[in-house]
Amino acid sequence: MLAERRHQLILRALRSGGTASVADLVEQLDSSAATIRRDLLKLEADGLLTRVHGGAVIDEERAPFNDAAEVLVAEKDAIAAQAAALIEDGQSIILDSGTTVHRLALQLHGRRLTVITNNLAVYDELIGDESIDLMLLGGMVIRESRMLDGFMAEDNLRQVHADWLFMGACGLRPGGQVMDTTVAEVPARRAMIAAGDKVVLLADKSKFPGTGMVKICGPEDLDVLITNAPEDDATCIALREVGVKVTPTDPAAVDG
Fold first, then answer.
1. CA–CA separation, 121 vs 73, rounded Å?
2. d(CA 139, CA 231)
3. Distance between CA atoms of 22 and 256, rounded to whole angstroms?
4. Which residues does 11 contact at the CB level (< 8 Å), separation at least 6?
5. Dihedral, CA atoms, 142, 148, 150, 156, nearest 10 degrees?
6. How far is Cα of residue 37 from the mean position of the Cα atoms in its chain?
7. What is d(CA 194, CA 192) in angstroms, rounded to the nearest whole number?
8. Partner of 102 for a Cys bridge, out of 49, 85, 121, 145, CB 3.0 to 4.6 A?
């Protein structure tokens, strides 16, 4: 069995139970204990799990989508407006599972675009708009996050290419590392980064540093950050120094 396939199956086992022993994984994957331990080392280095004695665990606690969607709506709309201005008619875009990204979808009605997404809220918003070619990625339905995830979503993303990826995050570290609290979302988001020509991070100031124990990507993977954080914020300065275009929102667009 290829290593990538074993990694997918290990993560699936952990997502279903939260923990798995090396012995259980050896039996499920018909692999040696040494191979499984190497896999766990690699997945831990990628930030996708935590090794414990005799096995591994993942912790995927995060606020449900509907709760997060009701927070900082005006700020998210101002960020979304700046993001929408980057897109030209006829282009293809990937929209990830974040709530700020969902606010961007609201600003795309009537545009001649191709939208690729695993965000069920984006799908619900755009399904009736016949000007938009809409591609819904496959995968397991994660109800609390209103998203599709798993190896099917990753496989779908390997078959597509887009002009833009617009993504959210749970946290943005001072060095520019983009973080998430949900291990399950990271592989699909990394596949989205690989599929997009330009990567745009949408992050309000509460995400500086925000939360998250799992690294999605580093500053070298970003092209644009759109934020309402102060321009003299240390993270914004660090990102500019490595060539990321930091775009502030218009304060007049935020209604308090």
1. 15
2. 38
3. 52
4. 43, 48, 49, 58, 183, 184, 187
5. 180
6. 27
7. 5
8. 121
Sheet holding 178-180, edge to edge: 171-172, 178-180, 214-217
pLDDT in tens, the chain (256 residues): 788 888 888 887 776 666 788 998 998 899 999 999 999 998 877 767 778 888 887 655 555 555 665 567 788 999 999 999 999 999 999 999 888 999 999 999 999 999 999 999 999 999 999 999 999 998 888 887 788 988 889 999 999 999 999 999 888 988 899 988 777 778 889 999 999 999 999 998 888 887 777 889 999 999 999 999 988 899 999 999 999 999 998 655 444 3
- Alpha helices per DSSP H over the chain: 3-17, 22-29, 33-45, 65-69, 73-84, 99-106, 120-126, 151-157, 186-195, 234-241
Angle between helical axes of 22-29 and 3-17 (0-180°, round to 10): 130
CA 119 – CA 125 distance, rounded (Å) = 10
